[in-house]
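Researcher: Batch entry, complex prediction.
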Amino acid sequence: MNFEELAERLDTAAVKATATPQISHSTPITLSEAYKIQEQSIQRRKDRGQQLVGVKMGFTSKAKMEQMGVHDLIWGRLTDDMAYAAGAELPRDKFIHPRAEPEIAFLLAKDITEEVTLDNALSFVSKVAVAIEIIDSRYENFKFSLEDVVADNCSSAGFTIGEWKEVDTKIIDILMSLVCDDVIVGKGNSNAIMGNPWESFVAAARISKANNEPLKAGHIVLAGAATSASYIKVGETVSAHAEGLGSVHLDIV
Ligand code: OOG
Ligand code: MG
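Model: Structure tokens for the complex:
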């Protein structure tokens, strides 16, 4: 099977909300081949008129790595059809087995044309916000290898972003939580994200540039969850809270 066929298989699984077997069970692929498959699956979305709106980082915290048994930083692409307005309804039947994560989002102030470091990172960002990421592995039982999940665009399926706050709003060492109805289902400290969530932004800038897809003004970066992810059910309201950033929710219908 060639990469285009694998990209089509994953894309179709997403469109039809039907799980597919792990690629690695039948076809050994390398990490760079997995990113190639990811790129081709995103190209299929672009061919349908969808647009790239940013990137998401994954496995930036121990909580996430331990939950999924994958121990390397990964990155995926966000397209405009994945975006939901804050407080919107999320139709459960568009997904296979969706999970939610509380995240921090960055909004790019300008195109990235030079090296980004912790010292200059703030100058590339206009706003920060709390966000919910909806992940929905296209693989059966939400199980995958590192290469599988990368090929599957890092399980990206949806996201919503809370009120954008000024870029100097504190995002280091803040409490973050995910609440389903009134139950706290996950909580952690933002520093669980690479010791400092800004490190995730720096990594996103470096990795996107290295892959010829440099971040542009208006793009969004999701830093990765500080907590493990939770399955979401019809009828629930899921909300993410981050100290000082406020909260955002989705109603699962
Ligand atoms: C992969 C995506 C990981 C994060 O925030 O770490 C991720 C997955 O767990 O399915 O989005
Ligand atoms: Mg995530």
